[in-house]
């Protein structure tokens, strides 16, 4: 079961490893402006606002999450094929919106499948999820090495084997039993999402993803402007994910030693420092390496805490919708807004200015967390509450 759960994480994040570091360079090579690049990159996050909620609702209502994951994997791959038609800016925008609408359905559904499969062994989540990080690193390294020898215009072709891996691994996940549970008490979802601690949690994560807009959209271009080659860019991306893997391996120890609030505030502060270092000290290689190691805080620690926080507050009846809201309101709305804002800052000032904007978002997130975040409640495995 461990390997069957880990397999889809590996291929899903391998695709991210091929897209995030190099897709902006591919778009730049196609002649798009910085604002157009920001808009196209934002679609990866934008469809997370709607798609996970739609698919999460279907998953909760039908109990057929595995079938929905398989459908998303196949349909998303078919829509991505539109990239090979070289449709221009508006055509590519439609292709990416369609592709990501189905592709973004996979992860929130699969997070629920994984946590359900683990049952009382939820402390093992990090060890399952780390294989996503391994896939990301492998794709970044392999694609980066190949792009040292071939033009970046070949990138879509290099992603085809990864799409095949996603499709195959989706069919290796054992099907869930049809589960039609009784409906939750009326109005309970509204009571959860209006809880002050949940509002603070979502605001914190929203600002966290706003701050990542410059990183996911312009980090590779920022490095290329400072003289780094594609393989070096790929290795720096991989370094951040290696730090994330190390964090996942020790996260259960940190959770026992520190409170949720302490971990979140510490991680947000380190994230703010990370963006400042990238903005101002890009050419100092040891400092840039240290900044990339801080990915363990800016993504690893905060995501691991957030997945468990959602489960703690939303319980069994609304777990799928809770994961969908987390994905949509934070990675979706926050990530898309961050990408667009960074596009304006890069177009008008510089890539460094975009990272300073991310640092400012983190300062606000720290204040919100300090005032509003509360410990997550215990979950009863039988009732889900």
TrEMBL record:
Give the Gene Ontology MF terms in alphabetical order: lactose binding; lactose:proton symporter activity
> Organism source for this protein?
Marinobacter nauticus
List the NCBIfam families.
Answer: mfs
What Gene3D superfamilies has UniProt attached to this entry? MFS general substrate transporter like domains
Name the UniProt key words of this record, in alphabetical order.
Cell inner membrane, Cell membrane, Membrane, Transmembrane, Transmembrane helix, Transport
What is the recorded membrane topology of this protein?
Multi-pass membrane protein
Q: Which domain of life is it from?
A: Bacteria
Q: Where is the protein situated, by its record's location annotation?
A: Cell inner membrane
InterPro entries attached to this UniProt entry: HcaT-like, MFS_assoc_dom, MFS_dom, MFS_trans_sf
Domain Major facilitator superfamily (MFS) profile, chain residue ranges per copy = 197-385
The name on file for this protein is MFS transporter
A GO cellular component annotation in the UniProt record: plasma membrane
| Membrane spanning residue stretches | 7-26, 32-56, 68-85, 91-110, 130-150, 156-175, 187-208, 228-251, 258-277, 323-341, 353-370
Q: Does the keyword Iron-sulfur apply?
A: no
């Amino acid at each position: 079961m461990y390997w069957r759960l880990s397999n889809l994480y590996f291929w899903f994040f391998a695709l991210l490893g091929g897209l995030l570091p190099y897709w902006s360079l591919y778009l730049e090579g196609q002649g798009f402006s910085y604002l157009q690049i920001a808009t196209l990159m934002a679609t990866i996050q934008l469809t997370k606002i709607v798609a996970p909620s739609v698919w999460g609702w279907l998953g909760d209502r039908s109990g057929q999450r595995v079938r929905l994951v398989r459908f998303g994997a196949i349909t998303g791959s078919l829509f991505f094929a539109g990239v090979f038609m070289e449709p221009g800016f508006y055509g590519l925008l439609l292709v990416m919106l369609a592709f990501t609408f189905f592709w973004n359905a996979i992860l929130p559904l699969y997070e629920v499948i994984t946590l359900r499969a683990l049952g009382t062994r939820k402390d093992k989540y990090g060890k399952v999820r780390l294989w996503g990080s391994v896939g990301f690193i492998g794709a970044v390294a392999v694609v980066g090495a190949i792009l040292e020898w071939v033009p970046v215009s070949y990138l879509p072709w290099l992603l085809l084997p990864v799409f095949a891996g996603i499709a195959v691994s989706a069919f290796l996940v054992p099907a869930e039993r049809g589960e039609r549970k009784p409906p939750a008490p009326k109005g309970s979802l509204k009571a959860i999402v209006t809880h002050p601690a949940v509002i603070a949690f979502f605001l914190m994560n929203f600002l966290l993803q706003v701050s990542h807009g410059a990183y996911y959209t312009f980090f590779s271009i920022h490095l290329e402007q400072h003289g780094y080659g594609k393989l070096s860019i790929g290795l720096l991306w991989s370094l951040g994910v290696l730090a994330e893997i190390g964090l996942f391996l020790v996260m259960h120890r940190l959770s026992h030693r520190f409170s949720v609030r302490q971990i979140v505030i510490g991680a947000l502060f380190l994230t703010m420092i990370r963006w400042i270092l990238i903005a101002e000290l890009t050419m100092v290689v040891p400092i840039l390496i240290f900044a990339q190691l801080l990915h363990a805080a800016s993504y690893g620690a905060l995501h691991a805490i957030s997945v468990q926080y959602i489960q703690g507050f939303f319980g069994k009846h609304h777990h799928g919708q809770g994961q969908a809201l987390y994905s949509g309101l934070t990675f979706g709305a926050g990530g898309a807004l961050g990408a667009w804002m960074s596009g304006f800052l890069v177009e008008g000032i510089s890539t460094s200015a975009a990272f300073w904007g991310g640092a400012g978002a983190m300062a606000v997130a720290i204040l919100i967390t300090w005032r509003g975040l509360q410990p997550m409640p215990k979950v009863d495995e039988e009732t889900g509450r």
